[in-house]
Write a structure and sequence with these properties.
single chain, about 210 residues, alpha+beta, 7 helices, binds iron/sulfur cluster
């Protein structure tokens, strides 16, 4: 089953197969077999940061910025995870898959044994709208409305991210040179909320769902 949830300007695709996807190509991992597709290193754009500030969770962003594994760029924060480089080199995997096989050796730092350890509103938006190809195939035609919603939300986030970035550039401000001032600017910059579709839950046929 696939359910759409939208709250505080943050969307979530909730899939009943997540966490029960042993054997799916994207959940394959040589470092932890229950990792699902959490090989991603979360990247917080200005708009992700804005959404989190709007929740009143500036503390989360501040804490991230102090961590050793967080790369602070002028206009985003990236939380670096684990990569088993030695295991990857030794593996000598055939490159007949149409994506980078390094992901089999990567792990997000927010992952824990029973899934993601941060609530969905504190994740960057790609985490909340990602579905693997196996799930998309199971959804068949029913996925098209979810796909449109995903595309529209990404467009909305990218557009206003660029708007805020250009405003900051004009003011010669950024996250590396003036972290607090930039957070303050992002907090007070007015952005209209996204208008979500009303998507009905989607039932797909799978033994595990
Ligand atoms: S999107 Fe697919 S691979 Fe990722 S956790 Fe869900 S079922 Fe597993
Ligand atoms: S932040 Fe959570 S959902 Fe996103 S990749 Fe990491 S563990 Fe997975």
């Amino acid at each position: 089953m696939l359910i759409y949830h939208f709250e505080d300007n943050i969307p979530l695709f909730r899939c009943s197969l997540c966490g029960r996807c042993d054997g799916f190509i994207e959940s394959k991992s040589y470092i932890n077999k229950n990792r699902g597709c959490c090989w991603y290193y979360p990247k917080y754009t200005l708009m992700d940061i804005k959404n989190i500030i709007s929740l009143g969770r500036e503390d989360f962003i501040r804490e991230l910025s102090t961590k050793e594994n967080v790369y602070k760029s002028n206009y985003f924060l990236e939380v670096r995870g684990y990569f088993d480089e030695e295991g990857y080199k030794k593996s000598n995997l055939k490159q007949d898959i149409d994506f980078d096989t390094k992901l089999f050796f990567r792990l997000c730092p927010f992952w824990q044994e029973n899934g993601c350890k941060i609530e969905f509103k504190l994740r960057p938006h790609p985490c909340n709208l990602y579905l693997c190809r196996e799930v998309i195939e199971l959804c068949k035609d029913g996925y098209s409305e979810f796909s449109k919603e995903r595309r529209d939300y990404f467009s909305y986030m990218n557009y206003f991210n660029e708007v805020i970035k250009h405003e900051l550039m004009e003011k010669r401000m950024d996250l590396t040179s003036d972290f607090e001032g930039t957070l303050d600017f992002i907090k007070n910059y007015q952005v209209p909320n996204f208008e979500p579709r009303l998507l009905r839950e989607l039932h797909f046929i799978n033994q595990a769902s």
